[in-house]
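3.2 Worked example (two chains)
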Amino acid sequence: MLNRLPLVLLILIAPAVYAGDLASDSAPMKWIEPLMPEDLPELTYPAYFTDLDKAQAQEVAGRYKLSLITLKNLKDLKPDQRTDAALIKGRSQAALGRWEGALATLSSDDPRVQIERAQVLSRMGKDDEALALLKRVVQKQPDSIAGHYWLGEVYEKVGDIPAAREQYTWFVVEPQKFLDKWTSRQHLPAFDRAEDVTLIGHAIDHFAALTQAYRNNPQLDRSILSFFVKAFDEIDRSYYPARLAAAEYFLSHDQTEDAVEQIKAALAANPNDLDAMNLMGGIAVGSFNFDMTDSIIAAIRKVDANALEADLLEARNLMAQRRPADAEPVVQKALAKQPKNIETLGLLAAVNALQLREEKVNQILKQVEQIDPNNATAYFEVAEQLDAMRQYPRAIEKYKVAVARAPWWTAALNGLGLLYTQSGDEDNARQTLELAHQLDPFNLRTTNYLQLLDKMDKFARKESAHFVVIYDPRSDPVIPEYFSDYLESVQAQVCSAYQYTPTVKTFIEVFPTHEAFSVRTTGSTWLPTVGASTGRVIALVAPRPGKNTLGTFDWARVLRHEYTHTVTLGATDNRIAHWFTEGLAVYQEHSPVPWDWVPMLYSAVSKKQFFPLDQLTWAFVRPKRPIDRQLAYAESFWICTYVEETYGHESILKMLELMRHAERQEDVFPKVTGKSIPEFMSDFQAWSEKQVAKWGYDKDSTAKYNELVKQGEELIKSRQYDEAAKVWQQIAELRPVDALPHQRLAGLYSVLKDRKKQIEQFQILAKVELKDNRFAKRIARLLVEDENWSEAGKYALEAVYINPYDIPAHEILRQVDEKTDNAGGAEREKRVIAELTKLQNDQDSSDSLGK
């Protein structure tokens, strides 16, 4: 089972990210949607179908109870029909969880029945009996494709890899040589049967994984996949198990969208297939789609109320929600059904690892080793769960055990390599991922990362006391001119705020394209943000205009936000609640509430639609509405502000300390605030209502606002600028957190030649602006005209921070530096202007050649 277990371990690392209002909402996993219909359609049958044919069609379509009823009415069956009826009945009983009944049904000596019985025994956890039975089948029928495959499968499940490898090898050696004969288009009777072709493809896939046959064999991937595709596309279009085999194959190579397409097709054929639902459940958990996972769990239990798959999926769903304490009784319930089930024991070890019970973890792993002395899967399970929670050193330790015990297992190598990338150890990442790539050249995320690491080899570095800035010197030569100095200027402030200083230098990786940034952060090519922190590593898209980036933004503000993540993650050993680290990061920006947050916050407060605290993190990770992620940032920021104002900064530090020790937030809040979470949220709601009461968004104020806006616009049109300014000043006082009156007043004071008031309005606008440097640049120019050089320099630098590729902004800053005798600054600006001019000329030449 080594190359199948990862299919239900698709928990993605969710880095702390900065989105703000920079990017549109994206749904990279929009291909996941509800799959199980509430009511199954009526089956129709050809006129020539016998009752036995109907029973088989019903079983294949997942109408298991109906199939049993149909079989019950059959009489006078011939011997071969009795075998077919037993297979149909046994499968239906097993699908419904009626294990003993299935065993009683599957009791004949027919090899097909015995193989089916062995599968039931294995699913019940009676692997020794299954192995004994399958050995007898293979001994009596040495050419049994199903016998050899399932014997290898069960051997692999119990950890006897040499024996499993021997069974899978049978498929590729003389006289079978199925792969050679398949690729050379030789005809064999087995190639006419969809079930046999699917099992052959499965077996060769397992053989390739366990023997490292994928290494340096670029054709093998397509060859194996072709077994499954031909089975469901040519031999028997109704044989959906071939689609599930293809889905498993795609998932093992991290090609999730292709897998989902095949699972959907399988579920369309049989909406009650437990394997298909379990596969989709693993994907749903991995994409943090907890509601869908719950619906799949319910659907599985509707078929089999006691299904072990449902218990394990529920436990994974709770663990993905950072609720290991809630997952523990679910895992214990599953363990009571099958006390020696290694997957369940691995989950139990992971549950305890996330609650810092190391002694208990070691006890469970020893228990696993008594069952399977060289086990790798349980260690991998623990590593994956720790990795998802950014417990990097502990996860690395467990990954290394899994790799040492199963060096052919690409999932463990990929997990370790990708973890190294998240923790900033790129040398080890490359070494590990290259080995994984040699074993599996077809894994999508691994390939993406290796291609990115190749590009990063050409990046330059600038090292300072606490940071290493890594950037592309060809497209972004201005990056080192500003980033390091700014970061060092805020480092002590942020670390002092949370009483923690990282023990190693923080890497700031600036990527020339948004796609490269996304791959660096998640392994996929799209992430709806410009910055992300995984702890030691902060990744950033270059704040450069262009089609391959997300445009300009205030990189200094974003870096302060992301470095706050680095500090709070370190202060809690990466155990901080996601909403809490986001709230503190926004708080550390020291910026007013963004204009577009204002109506959203007012609506949420007035309608009492804040997220409950236990759902706040998932509004970031899995937003259900376009505004959810933005509202989650705003709510988290306000909660942190409220705690600071009401309980003092010491309360923030106390919460961080408790989270470091893996305390649950439902226990943290009473200890720090003296209030239960419902009581705290009630008080927070009251505080929020006071904040928005002055904003001018109530019904009466809105009516007055609309009337005044109309009046003010008409006065501008009629060029009555003095009167217009008075009206717009009233509007600004009525609704102070609205950009429009300040924009109008800035323009009016410009016409009225009131420089002081004009600057005041631009300053209000500049404090909130994140993506456009026009306000800061305009202030700087006005202050230069006034020869207020120190203030002009402040705003010129802000204009450069928002758009470091804006040559006029640099020219203003150069002028200020020269006037204030800042020789170093002036020299820097001359250098940067020359670099940017060269870049612009190169781009113009490239565009001209393109035309």
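3.2.1 Second chain
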Amino acid sequence: MAKAKSAKSKSVPAKKSSAKADAAFSGGPGKKLVIVESPTKAKTIRKFLGKDFIVESCMGHVRDLPRSAKEIPEKFKKKPWATLGVNVEEHFEPLYTIPKDKLKVVKTLKDKMEEAQELYLATDEDREGESISWHLSEVLKPKIPMKRMVFNEITKEAIQKSLGDTRPIDLNLVRAQEARRILDRLVGYTISPLIWKKVAYGLSAGRVQSVAVRLIAERELERIRFKKASYWGVSAYLKDQGIPFEGKLWSWKGQRIASGKDFDGHTGKLATANVLVLDETAAKDVEKKASAQDFKVIEVDEKPVFRRPPAPFITSSLQQEANRKLGLGSRETMQVAQKLYENGLITYMRTDSTFLSQEAINAARTWIQREYGKEYLPEKPRVFDSKKVKGAQEAHEAIRPAGQEFISPEESGLSGTPLRLYELIWKRTVASQMVDSKQKQVSTRIQSGDAVFSATGMTIEFPGFLRAYVEGSDDPDAELQEREVRLPALQTGGKVGLEKLEPTSHETKPPARFTEASLVQIMEKEGIGRPSTYASIIGTIIDRGYVRKQGSALVPTFTALVVSQLLREHLPQYVDLGFTSEMERSLDTIAEGELDSESYLGSVYLGKTGLKSTVDGQEKKIDPEKAREIQLEGLEKFSFRVGKYGAYVCMEREGAEVCASVPESESPADITPETAEKWIEQKIHGADALGHDEKTGLPIYVLSGRYGPYVQLGDASGDDAKPKRVSLPAGVQPEQVDLPMAMKLIELPKVLGTHPGVGKPVQVGLGRFGPFVVCDGDYRSIPKGQSLFDVTFEIAMEMLAQPKKGRGRAAPLKELGAHPDDKQVVNVMNGPYGPYVKWGKVNASLPEGETVETITLEKALPLLAEKADAPKAKKKRRA
């Protein structure tokens, strides 16, 4: 395949329609071909167009830079720049190729174009969508009139309007997207090989990905450096007019009492002057002396507080709030939002604009007046200034329910996660057009001898927008009650009753780990990447083993610490927030037509200070042994390293170095010297046996391995030894395991009895997804709170009698389209061993090298066919 034309060429991308074509559009003869990205989007749009329209999906990009050596045309394979896919020697010309799985898609589109008299490119209205339309125009080379059709929502009104309001392809947006793609390729393909050589093969670096990893890794190092401080306080439980309330000791003998904010997190020492740090003895002294005095109100301060509703959602705020309120990751949020958009329920979900159209404002105000009344409706519609974030993407409307009348969540036909996300968007949009909430904030000081206590309260005078939307809860009415902290009507000089005084112990806390919400927040604030890419960035660093999720927290692995350290020491500007943010601004300037993309790429990649020469120069200076190693503060006698099989810890013992695996479940900041020492001791001496199994006489150990703690029956002395091992149940710590518990675990899976209906054994066991009961391949999970050791045959039979709960609640990662045999939808699902394609009851794992983003229907069909035709393996009968 010849090298494809770049967007930098001066070819006219879109042909102006002729008078004849305009007549055809307005109802004349001839078919019109409309091309969109996905089958779902095509299906929705077909409902709004007549029989004269053919709506087809291009399944995303029809061509791209080569993804592997196989896709590089033979004539270019020996070129020094071939692996990059970008001719850095000739104007940074990209080598575009049509992937094998897209050849059939392109042929179908060309065949359909033969039936049409007009072509409408209806891809998304952003840089990515503009780029897809341009690539389609270059690949299809239409000889019929071609128009760029754009819309912000998939409703009948929006589609009809967009048909009559077409435009040419915006080449500035295309160039900006092309420059971004080339820049990401140059950075990733230049730095990643360096990491392969110096740390471990298969790791990757990325222009934005590496900065995200650095942020998470540095937060973990801050936690490691953190020095804990202890302090005491005194709580007063008071009562007046029958209303109980709590006060906190604020000062003693005229000195303010120290709180957590007064301590230095790096040293653990007091950082604020003229404050008093109480210890336990001093706190009890305050308790004794204050309890003997009357409690008198010396100050009451009341002030009204007005809260404005938050702006409608943009991409980043939707990801943050869905993470906080619904527990969704950024990737899942965007996948579900994509489906809502493609099904015509919400407006386009990649936007930095808080702007609402007049029809959206009218729909919201109509609903507010009808459901809540006039007092909840402001005199004038609210207008929010679009966020001026660094590197803001093209302006669209905010994310809101689609249409001129919002479909209520109850009438949407949705369920599960899609319903919850739609409801979140719906409530936020409606609330944005409601009046302020009015609150009364009360603060008071109460004196008892030399002690002064403070208490604060808040009451809601008028809920305003809080009736519809309260951040942090799905139940606004319940949340309103929880938000209120009522104080009695206190008067200066009045006395209040004392219920009790209680000394309280406190410790300062290390900086919190990032969650997906807080990471998105800081990346947006610093202008790192674009909100529309945050979901894929976070997904990538989790998939590549740089980060794991612990609850909602993003915990870096030792691989993340090591790679971040290497880049920070040897290629600091490529993980620098300011440098990366400046790249985004340059790409925006290209999109505005004010910067030449070729000149910019040259300045980044070439020259003495360019990326290539910098990486080449630093490669010689990096010692692979040192690159794989990191020292942690407070653990100086240990060396933590990353190897082929994960992280391990080493230390000198009796003149020799001893190393032991670090369990993958361990967080770097939570490792203590005692924990590391225990791993080393187990490696040298082996663990002390808890005792011996009554049946076999073999020793039973509690050990820790790469995948966490487990019990082991017998010794692993020889190369062929395979002692039985059972992981500890979730929540059980190694120190809690005694010999009776260990023996029960070693028995698993345990036969409880024989099923009277099928004549097969009923067993209880512990698997990857927790404890279960099973009979003849029919599994049931043991509910949380139910100990697997307490499950009897009768209980197991009751569980097996219950209908099996499917995992259908999980949303597909991607919809590929209808299977040609039975028209059932083929989906990409997320499973315990990674993503897979699903067609009816047939599942097939993605082959190596394929990702959720690259898999297509054409690639999936042979995988499913092979799986469907494969004979089922016969189980070997035991003698």
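3.3 Remarks
The longest strand covers residues 295-307.
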